Amino acid sequence: MMRKRLAKAGLYASIAALMGAWSMLPVSASEGTTSGTASGGMSTVGYLIFMVLLFAVMYFILIRPQKKKDKEAKAMQNSLQVGDEIVTIGGIVGMVVQVQEDTVVVETTGNRNKIRLKTWAIQENVTMSENAKREQEAKLAAAKARKEGKKQDKADVTDKPEDGKEMLKD
Description:
The protein contains 3 helices and 5 strands; from the N terminus they run ααβββββα. It is of the alpha+beta class. Helix 1 runs antiparallel to helix 2.
């Protein structure tokens, strides 16, 4: 969802940059013939600046995130181990039985059918994502426990009288 919003923002920024650069072209052509090279040179520099900005926006919004995603997918595919549950690009779900250099043997059903797949065809390592999810939940639980412990300590300190003596009740 966020990726789509960023892509739309990048597209709108690119369109705005192109429209700005395009609107400067007729001005530079008409001014360049009458007033000399000074104003014509400025519009050319403006056009180049818009083109550089357009490329920068396209790089940071579209190209860079895709490279990051490809790098993560390659790392996941290279870290496959026997016993991992995977999902392929085609939707085949199975358990890794054997890992070779560029192929993986996957057991797919209760009948122990085996399929040999290229590593680039693996979309998701379910086991790795479940382990990461469990670790995340454990960290959140530990942080929550620490926060509750601090609240409890703070409550214990405020319940005690300042001079350390017990208050007498009538």
